[in-house]
Prior knowledge:
Blueprint: E1 11-18, E2 24-32, E3 39-42, H1 43-48, E4 52-56, E5 59-64, E6 67-75, E7 78-82, E8 85-87, E9 98-101
Parallel strand pairs: 3-9
Antiparallel strand pairs: 1-2, 1-8, 4-5, 5-6, 6-7, 7-9
Amino acid sequence: MGNSASSKVIGEGTVQFRAYDGCITTLQGMCHIPDLGYNFISLGVLQSEGFSFNSEGDLMEVSKEAHVKFQAEHVDNVYVLQNSKVTGGGLQLSSASTAVVVE
Length: 103
């Protein structure tokens, strides 16, 4: 968590993103950690699922099969999803923004 503290994972499930173009992307096996202030997604997890990344300046595009699935803006050392709606699909998500963590 950046401060040497630990938090407990209390659930695992599916998260869906509805991108600005209306396409839905589903990620499975996501962990619910209620103590975090953001909904975090690891770039390593995305990459293992076949996603690729392109960044220019403070904007990163996350693509799969040559289609941009969502965009994220660089803010305070993380990329925050832009123009996307995130639903829990079985997980209770934080009401905070969703951030993609750079590894």
